[in-house]
Structures are given as structure tokens and as C-alpha cells.
Amino acid sequence: MGASITTLMIDAYSMSVDNLHSRMHVLDASGVKPLDAGWVPQMPASKKRSYARYTMAAVELLGMLVQLERKARRMTAQDMADRLGVDRSTLHRLEKGDPKVELGLAFEACAILGIPLFEEDAQGVSMRLDEAGKRLALLPRRVRPKPLSISDDF
């Protein structure tokens, strides 16, 4: 365990790919063990996320509104993507209703295009934000489930 990650990264750049596989090591129960030449690191399989129909419909509607307003303003997809600071493919995913697109990105697109989400102006949003903060202050910080009381009266 003498080499740091930085040293290994620098070594990796200086070695050929074939040589890299022969020098990589992995820890197992018995200590450090060299990897097989055919080993390729794998990402863990991600779980398929399911969304409610309402959620999917709302995300699709938001995407359609973004696309409709962008086209009504005669703004190209590339121009809009540049304004958002993303690739055109990410904008396309937003407009097609992909629920995995960042929420902040969707809100930013709406702000750029003038699509109202909660209120027409920033002052209305600020008032609702203050109201929500006051209501949250009245509630407990943590919510615990009520203990189940088992009644054996029959």
C-alpha cells in the first residue's frame, strides 16, 4: 500500500494499456492480489426508477412548455442549451420529459423563457417562500412515526 492514488494515476498515464492491466492490484481477504489480464472494471447496475403517472405527465407537460416557448421566441436548441450551460442533448431530454433531468435546470429554463411556475413575479415567489418558512418553523424538526399500540381487547 505504498503508492498513493496520485502516483498510481501518473503511472497509469505513463504505461501502455497492456502493461496497466498487469500492474493493477485489487484487495481481497488475503491481501493484495494481481488482477486477471481480461478484467475490466464494471459500474454497479443502477436500479430502474419508476415514477407515478402524474409525475410523468407533469414532467412531460413542463418539457412541452419549454419547447413551445423556446420555439415561439424563435430560439434555436443550441442557443437555449448555451444559455443553460448544457449540451443540446440535455435540453432535448428536458423537452421530451425525461424525469432524470436536474430540477434546477428545468427551473432555469422556465426562468429564461418567462414560464411562470408558482407566481408571475419574483416578489410573489418571495412572499410564498417566507410563508412556507414560517409554517415550517411551527412544525417539529423531526417527524417520528407514532408507535403502534396493539390492543388485545376483543
Shape: extended
The name of the CATH topology of the largest domain is: 434 Repressor (Amino-terminal Domain)
Helix-strand topology string: HHEEHHHHH
CATH superfamily of the largest domain: lambda repressor-like DNA-binding domains
The main sheet comes to: 2 strands, antiparallel
**Helix coverage percent:** 40-55%
Write down the domain tally.
Answer: 2
Class by helix and strand content? Answer: mainly alpha
Rg measurement, Å: 26 Å
CATH class of the largest domain: Mainly Alpha
CATH architecture of the largest domain: Orthogonal Bundle
**How many E strands?**
2
Separation of termini?
66 Å
The number of helical runs is: 7
How much of the polypeptide forms β-strand, as a percent range?
Answer: 5-15%
Low-confidence stretches: 23-28
Oligomer: single chain
Strand order, largest beta sheet: 1-2
Mean pLDDT comes to: 80
Pfam family, one: HTH_3
InterPro entries: Cro/C1-type_HTH (IPR001387), Lambda_DNA-bd_dom_sf (IPR010982)
GO molecular function: DNA binding
Protein name: Putative Xre family DNA-binding protein
